[in-house]
Amino acid sequence: MNRIVKKIELKHKGKNFIITHSYQNGSTSTIVEDSSGVEYPRQSRIFLREKAKQLGLYENGYLYNDGIEVDTHTYFRNIHKITPSGLKQGGILNNSDLYNVFKCGNSGGMRKSNTTNSLLIISDHTKSLYDDRWEEDVLYYTGMGQTGDQSLEFMQNKTLNESGKNGITVYLFEVFNAGEYTFRGEIKLVKNPFQEEQNDADGNSRRVWIFPLKLKTVEKEVRLKDLKNIIEKRENKIRKLSDEQLIKNIANSRKVSSKRNVETTTYERNQHVVEYAKRRAKGKCELCEEEAPFLTKDKQPYLEVHHIQWLSNGGEDSITNVAALCPNCHRKMHALDLEIDKSKLNEKVKGDFND
Ligand SMILES: [Zn+2]
Ligand SMILES: [Zn+2]
């Protein structure tokens, strides 16, 4: 099949962007570049694609097939022929993308797609105060059926249970932000489903089926940022529960914690910069100016070195961007990051250790 490419140019924050949408052999890809050819990360890619849609650029943009303009109908007909094999791990789909690809219903944790002969497993972190349980790379997924005992013969429980022999492909999507489905890849049953006691929404105990599932390939791990975001949102919801509800939920929770592998970024910091900040502080927190709360085993004042402009926001690892803080002030900077505190620290770090 010919490669079909559609290029769209648009302006954003005074910069020019080029969006290239291409379709080949059943797979589509969207790339956003600025005029210097720099690719943009996923978030802004999504943003710009949405922007392009809002601006109607997808309808009015140019469409090329090996350099020859093609009518948009052909293009869209091809786009609608996207097969799941064209989905990329980590790619984010919205509800209408999901419908275009799979032609399946838009609710429920398990969705059957007859068009593609597949079953979608949706692990939606935004819906429940509880989360699906992961143990390293195995997802213990609770079957279908909201109340009463669950049955292995029931709808998609049956489909999933028989997925080793019914020829159906199972895909996992995770939702970290409402309406955004992150494609995680093809998933398979790794052990036989088993039964477990769980409370239903009304707090009544019942038997559910648990399906141990594992991704066939893991190219991209879940981002720490996405998980933190979910935890934060859940924290806000839990804070609003009544005391009774809180106690009830604890009673209904499993006692084994969930653990999963995440993709993290670690910054290798210049230890000389760390040491310099500590010497400059002379044993006192550079924010509250109190003595360090205790001495380390090596009899050094315990202070933590913090980047005033965070490394994750592009801050420099330099002596004028670090401050030695007591643990309380350090937590405060991470929780609040107040301007008044930052400007105090920025003043402080101008001095050197002879002052
Ligand atoms: Zn302090
Ligand atoms: Zn810090």
Automatic annotation (TrEMBL):
Domain HNH nuclease: 272-331
Family matches, as SMART domains: HNHc
Gene Ontology molecular function: any one: endonuclease activity
Pfam families: HNH (PF01844), SRA_ScoMcrA (PF26348)
Gene3D superfamilies: 1.10.30.50
Family matches, as InterPro entries: HNH (IPR002711), HNH_nuc (IPR003615), SRA_ScoMcrA (IPR058712)
Keywords carried by this UniProt record: Endonuclease, Hydrolase, Nuclease
Name of the featured protein: HNH endonuclease
